[in-house]
Design a protein that fits this description.
60s Ribosomal Protein L30, Chain: A, eight-stranded antiparallel sheet, about 375 residues, 11 helices, alpha+beta, five-stranded mixed sheet, Nucleotidyltransferase, domain 5
């Protein structure tokens, strides 16, 4: 069964009173929370804690694990299969716990969480705003197909998620045409069932079908004869190969962008490509690094500021404030700020450049 992806559910947001209440529905949503949390924030969520009665011994593994709602002050944050948040307890059932004791909340999907901040800065508000906007965008499924192999991927807000792959050996047509036709028909049917399931779960506005030769076109004819309404959503484009390599080829071109130019992954890819193109042409219309970007901002030259999201989680408060000041200054100057997720390849590339890059409105010497 292919897992159904959903979008972050925001229940209440009140930045004036400093809180945001939400339900993360996917691992991507947990990553959103990871991006905006920093030491000193407070998190309130359901958790389990071992409660010892006075009659029980003091071993760490003694006592009953009880589910309760606790609020902790964030000190350490780690992201993996879940979101782990550690800090002292600041609120909870004082009949069962002692305030000030340390606790780790392992935040999971589908569990409500409230985030409290003394101040919600510009970047944190923008991340939430972007997520709300992206939740309304059309989703895109990309299928890269060659004879015997297929890769099916979903473009989400932070990454390209491969949801299915098949690699079958199919008898060559010239050696046994009848066996080849039978094997290809079974392969096509298997791919169709996968696409139906993905479509049912995600309801994409568009499905991009790509691959070399006549195989993708033959598959599209196969789909038309069996599910014409689904076939009407499929747009065929040529690619030099199938599988993951073909998927990368489709993403490196502007094909998904023509269909949904605001999709996060595609947008980030195109911005980064534009940066490297300008660097190659030596146009003096890009700059990177904190000091250079700050100078460009002071000159009013920044069109698009690109920040890798690890810069939002710097533990050195002064360094983090410097980054926030750049973001706020850019907002005041009317520039765009785009946060790149380091969960995606483009974010890692931006991070390798120092995590702060700007596309400029005009050529400047810095």
């Amino acid at each position: 069964m292919i897992r159904c992806e959903k979008y972050l559910k925001i229940i209440r947001q009140d930045y004036r009173h400093g809180y945001l209440e939400l339900i993360p529905e996917t691992i991507d949503d947990l990553y959103v929370i990871y991006r905006i949390l920093k030491p000193g924030d407070r998190v309130r969520a359901s958790t389990k804690r071992r409660i010892r009665k006075d009659s029980e011994d003091s071993r760490a593994d003694s006592g009953e694990r009880v589910k309760l709602v606790l609020e902790i002050k964030v000190e350490n944050i780690s992201f993996g299969d879940n979101l782990s948040i550690k800090g002292p307890i600041v609120a909870g059932n004082e009949n069962l716990i002692s305030l000030g004791e340390y606790h780790t909340i392992a935040l999971k999907e589908m569990e409500k969480v409230i985030i409290y901040k003394d101040h919600w800065n510009t970047s944190e508000k923008q991340i939430i705003s972007d997520i709300e906007k992206e939740s309304r965008l059309a989703k895109i499924v990309i299928i890269t197909l060659d004879e015997g192999s297929v890769c099916v991927a979903l473009v989400t807000q932070f990454a390209v998620k491969i949801v299915a792959e098949i690699d079958h050996s199919i008898t060559r047509k010239f050696s046994d045409a009848k066996q080849h036709s039978s094997a290809l028909g079974k392969f096509f049917q298997e791919v169709l069932e996968i696409i139906k399931e993905v479509h049912e779960q995600h309801n994409p506005q568009t499905i991009i079908l790509a691959g070399p030769g006549f195989t993708p076109e033959n598959f599209l004819d196969f789909v038309r004869k069996r599910d014409n309404s689904l076939a009407q959503k499929i747009q065929f484009v040529h690619a030099n190969t199938g599988g993951r390599v073909g998927l990368h080829e489709v993403l490196s071109r502007n094909l998904p962008e023509k269909i949904a130019d605001e999709q996060r992954v595609v947008y980030e890819t195109r911005l980064l490509e534009e940066f490297f193109k300008r660097v190659g042409k030596d146009t003096n219309t890009v700059t990177y690094g904190y000091d250079n970007v700050k100078k460009a901002l002071e000159m009013g030259a920044v069109d698009t500021l690109m920040i890798s999201d690890d810069k939002l989680r710097i533990y050195d408060e002064k360094e983090r404030e410097k980054v926030e000041q750049l973001i706020e200054f850019n907002r005041q100057m009317g520039g765009k700020t785009v946060f790149f997720s380091t969960q995606h390849e483009t974010g890692e590339k931006l991070k390798s450049l120092g995590g702060i890059v700007a596309l400029l409105r005009y050529s400047v010497e810095i």
